[in-house]
Amino acid sequence: MTKVIRSLWQLLLLTYDTGKPVKLTCEECFILLGYDADLLAGGASLEEIRPAVKQHLALCSECRTKFDEWLEQLDGEQPQPHSN
Questions:
Q1: pTM
Q2: Region label for 14, one of left (φ > 0), alpha (ψ between -120 and 50) or beta (otherwise)
Q3: Are 22 and 14 in contact (CB under 8 A)?
Q4: 48-60, pLDDT tens digit by residue?
């Protein structure tokens, strides 16, 4: 059986404020996380990250671990303020 991964536009339609729980694969979760990271870099607020991603991260320890590692890497890349 071939696993089908939905495209970004399909995922956005499925997860856009439907109020219904959406099951994501690990690959789909990271597709949406990448999109959300781009939004955050463009100035969107952290609260705008969609509930389906949060739900998947809460249920999938493998993705949660990868997500936490990704956040640590991003935190290490943040410019440090200069002290005078």
A1: 0.62
A2: alpha
A3: yes
A4: 667 767 777 888 8
Structure tokens at 22: 């959406």
Alpha-carbon span 57 to 81, nearest angstrom? 31
Domain parsing of the chain, residue ranges: 21-72
Residues with Cβ within 8 Å of 16's Cβ and at least 6 positions away in sequence, in order, are 50
Provide the terminal-to-terminal Cα distance of the chain, rounded to the nearest Å.
Answer: 61
Whole-Å CA distances, 8 to 12, 25, 69, 80: 6, 13, 23, 34
70: which 2 tokens?
């990704």
